[in-house]
Amino acid sequence: MSFLASYKHLEKLCGEVMNDNRRITAYIEEMEAKSRGTALVPGWNEDLRKLKHYRWVRNQIVHDPDCCEEDLCEPWDAQWLDDFHGRIMEQTDPLTLYRRAMEPPKPAPQASPQTTLPQTPGNGGRRQNAGCAAFLLGAAVILLLLL
Asked: Is the pLDDT of residue 7 over 70?
């Protein structure tokens, strides 16, 4: 794709994701509003810098009659825009990673206490009582034999 085609493709997606007609600008402003983005998301500053640069390039191409895509862009510029589009689709873009990093940690599932003798429903602990009775009966028999 050409630079402008890639930019428009990303711009449409950003508008949908951000639910904002300002599209890429809305994405950029959301990144700028996140004070901890640099600390929480690797590559945050680089992505923000590139988005701002490519927005500037797009504006130059569209609004300056003396500028054209061939003068301002290299093939890898369009590729970066396509890759960033893919990152949004895969939810590995900076804002998604930031939201994940800011989520409170989920509590670890707590282990249920283990009982030494499992009870079956409805036995009301009779299994444990039967074990105690058998032990006492056995102790009484041994005691009688010794006497």
From this structure: yes
